[in-house]
Structures are given as C-alpha cells and as structure tokens.
Amino acid sequence: MDKEALENHKLYLERKALYKSFGCDIDKERSFIVEKAQPIYGDILEAGTGKGHFALALAREGYRFTTFDISKEEQRFAKLNLKYFGLDHLVDFRVENGEYLSFKDKSFDIIFSINTFHHLTSPYKVLDELIRLLCFEGKIVLSDFTGEGMALMDKIHASEGRKHDVSSTTLADIERYLIKKGFNTGKASSKYQEVLIAYHQLI
Q1: 3-state class (DSSP) for residue 115
Q2: Domains and CATH numbers, the chain
Q3: 118-135 pLDDT, tens digit each
C-alpha cells in the first residue's frame, strides 16, 4: 500500500470518528440508503462523489459504477480511499459540472445523489441533467439530511471553525418538481437521512 493512500485513509478514519463523536455512524447511514434503493442494477451513476463515503458503500457491495464531482480535490480523496480498500477498479471517477454533464441521454439505469443537493446553487438545473440521463425504466435515488442530520452537520462544521452553508431548496421541493415532471416517488427516513426515490409513471 502506498504512503499517499495510507495517509488519506487516516484522514477518512478521523472524519468517521468525528461523526461518531456526535452520535452518527456514517457507514450505517449509507447502508440504509443502499438498502432502500434496492433493487440496484444496470448502469449506475453517482452525482456528487464528495469524500467518497457513499461510493465506498456501493463498491463494498460489489457494484460497478461511474461517479462524478466538480472538485478535483474531493475526487482525489475519494479515489485514494477506495484504493486503500482495493475497490477503486470498480469505479469510473470523473470530474464534471453537474449543470452541464457530458454523458449521453438515457445512459443510466440508476442515479444516486447523496447529501449533495443542499449544497447546490442551481439544484433544478442539475436535476434536469439527471432526468436527461435516466433511462425510462430507471430511478433516481436522492438522499439528504433530516432536520436532525442538518443540526448534526452544523455542529460538526462549527467544531472545525466553519459554517455549514445550506440551500433554501429542500428535498420536499425536489419531490414536488419531480412529480410535475411525471415521476412517481417513494420515501424513507432514518434518524439522519431522508431518502427520495423517483421513477417514471407507467402510462
């Protein structure tokens, strides 16, 4: 194992421990999302890799998928972390702007976006891109923090001397938009995560 991957993994463990100190098990929350998203099949896309916590959860289950993030730094962190676990070969890491994606129409069966939408300045523009990429029989799985989860993130950011910036657009707003676009939706919640699953209405 190379030194860079080992050092990166140490940062990952420190991040997990920080969440744990506030009462949140990151692995358990990600596993909850994977469970609620079943069945998972076909060509899979993750929108917003971040530090790769959800990418790791998917890869540990043996899924092959594409993941993108606008941040080269975050992608590097995520890729090194999956490399530590010997899982980076399952993942195609891309640096992309979610508002202008390079993928072809209807090229994915399942699209995930986890704890990303509350960061976006143009959430509906990104959502329209994800809708464009979804095949007709596919589904979009969105998850973001519950109220308790947002409060937790505020505490974590404050402990690091930062402010947790949150968009005014909620997952409920996103659901209403998807319904107007002709989607059916289903929902589930854990203590810290809301999950919204959207799929095309069958005519």
Answers
A1: coil
A2: 3-181 (3.40.50.150)
A3: 888 899 999 999 999 999
